[in-house]
Write a structure and sequence with these properties.
The complex is a heterotetramer, with two copies of chain A and two copies of chain B. Chain A is α+β, with helices and mostly antiparallel strands. Helix content of chain A is about 30%, strand content about 40%. In chain A, the strands form two sheets. Chain A has a four-stranded mixed sheet with strand order 1-5-7-2. In chain B, about 25% of the residues lie in helices and about 25% in strands. Chain B contains three helices and five strands. In chain B, a hairpin with a 2-residue loop joins strand 3 and strand 4. Chain B is globular and about 35 Å long. The relative contact order of chain B is 0.27. The chains are: A alpha+beta, B alpha+beta. Chains A and C meet through helix 1, strand 2 and helix 3 of A and helix 1, strand 2 and helix 3 of C.
């Protein structure tokens, strides 16, 4: 059976509880793993307000689907749902949410770690710090 | 042939523009495109070793032979997550 | 700062979305990992209605806290919340939910996998299949 | 001394009871307790190699010296998750 995939790249806040609540019940799969990446309030030692994410979205979608293809070849994963938020994101808010559903735990952990590692290698998304004071911000 | 080159992330700031168009001879490779581009935008050339190159929405290496209609993208290492 | 711990062993259904929604916002921590163990509809090739979990609860609590102690020594984890449901659980429902919050992803993955592995080794919880037909059930 | 022994999971069914009380001499070890228990409940004895032993809420090995007031628990391999 084909791996179910759901990819959302958007500037809306990520409502993790809503994504969790929307999971389809599947009694053939024993393991659900969810990872949330949260924007931290420091970057390179400096306190920041948050991060501003940008993306070459069409390519990001293409690259995510290539990763999903390989994930499906490598592990018996029944579902992957991934949400990446773009635009300004305040520290403490979620920039990435990914869920992997598999028959067993080992597969879910291995596939999710691999997916995030690969995402950080090939998916065209970038971030820049949002300085605490607007006075210290500026181009260049 | 005219090849549009889209710049992403801080490459836009380094070049002072998000898109440039380069005139290249038939059979030109990405390597040739980069050489020409870096003559015009030396601040981009300084990033050469950490530059990723795509044609359309797929990554391509420096020996890729460009064709009419290709859209090239250049960007720094990605940082999703 | 001490690792925050929250342990719930109970026969109530696990409302994952509610647990997710109740997470404290922490902008110093970049990684949140949640694992849900779902009861599968087959056991050893036979289709089952679900699993009936039992536990020596006082010892389970003690053993979980010993594991949390070691987890805290081994990884910089800021919070762990673990819920284990007991009693009859239908296939497709969640028997275990665990969340680990850490500064970085690698720590959260490593600590969560270790915690679940160790739980399966030392925490006194047992399960027995609930047969599909009540006619086939009975004391062994 | 009298040592209560609590049985868990299917050990209860093997023994036909969830709790037994054993009379042991001072200085007796868990090993001694098991030997006596298995004489009375040979179906439990068949599980010896996969039996976990706790005193109170902590695991103990077979050389643990029992004391008045100890509560022993015996159970099969655990299966949480």
């Amino acid at each position: 059976m084909a791996m179910r995939r759901e990819l959302t790249i958007s500037d809306r806040p990520i409502d993790e509880a809503a994504w969790v609540a929307a999971r389809r019940n599947d009694s053939t799969q024993g393991a659900v793993l969810q990872f949330a990446g949260v924007v931290r309030d420091s970057e390179g030692g400096a306190t920041i307000l948050g991060l501003d994410y940008s993306s070459f979205v069409a390519m990001a979608e293409r690259q995510f689907h290539l990763l999903f293809d390989e994930m499906e070849r490598r592990w018996p994963i029944s579902s992957v749902r991934l949400v990446h938020r773009l635009g300004p994101i305040k520290a403490g808010e979620t920039s990435l949410w990914v869920e992997t559903v598999a028959g067993h735990r080992g597969e879910a952990f291995a596939a999710t770690q691999w997916l995030i590692d690969e995402m950080k290698r090939v998916v065209p998304i970038w971030k820049k710090p949002l300085p605490i004071s607007s006075e210290t911000s500026g181009s260049g | 042939m005219k090849i549009p080159v889209q710049l992403w992330s801080y490459f836009t700031e380094l070049a002072g523009t998000s898109q440039v168009e380069l005139e290249l001879p038939p059979g030109a490779k990405i390597d040739d495109l980069l050489t020409l581009l870096y003559q015009r935008h030396p601040r981009l050339g300084a990033m050469r070793n950490s530059t990723l190159v795509a044609v359309g929405v797929d990554y391509q290496g420096s020996s890729y032979v460009l064709q009419e209609g290709d859209e090239v993208s250049l960007f720094p290492p990605v940082q999703g997550g």
